[in-house]
Amino acid sequence: MTKPVTHKRIRMFNTKDTYPNQALDNDLCQAVVAGNTVYVRGQIGTDFDGQLIGLGDPRAQAEQAMKNVRQLLEEAGSDLSHIVKTTIYITDPRFRDPVYQVVGKWLKGVFPVSTGIVVAGLGQPEWLMEIDVIAVIPE
């Protein structure tokens, strides 16, 4: 007997293909839809072709990350206006203003709850920021 599908995975990938410089072999995806909730994996300044945008520029990386978030939400049947929670990670407290200005521009009028964290580093040394979001799909 097969189990009923309770969620949908968007843009599945394996880390050995995405991060060949690391000895990883994990099956992941960019977003999961469970019920009417969308969980978006942490997005960085890399486009979906693997090209880093804005080497050394937290503002440019935040811009690309938000483009990714928008695209993933649209693929899930939602959009930026339905974001309910953001978590923003930055590798230097001086990046707070440029990163939050970009995110704020993209989420003007949305009013999500938000958590900001300064971390010692992210998955790759060139990544300066990362954002993950939770959104809903409107009825």
Helices and strands, with pairings:
Layout: E1 7-14, H1 15-18, E2 27-34, E3 37-43, H2 58-76, E4 83-90, H3 96-106, E5 113-118, E6 129-136
Helix pairs in contact: 2-3
Q: CATH topology, what is it called?
A: 60s Ribosomal Protein L30, Chain: A
Q: Approximately how much helix is present in the residues?
A: 10-25%
Count of domain modules: 1
CATH superfamily: RutC-like
Quick one: biggest sheet?
A: 6 strands, mixed
Strand order of the largest sheet: 1-2-3-6-4-5
Percent of residues in β-strands: 25-35%
Low-confidence stretches: none
**What's the CATH architecture name?**
2-Layer Sandwich
Radius of gyration: 15 Å
Work out the number of β strands.
6
CATH class: Alpha Beta
- Helix-strand sequence: EHEEHEHEE
User: Which class best fits the helix and strand makeup?
Assistant: alpha+beta
> What separation lies between the terminal Cα atoms?
30 Å
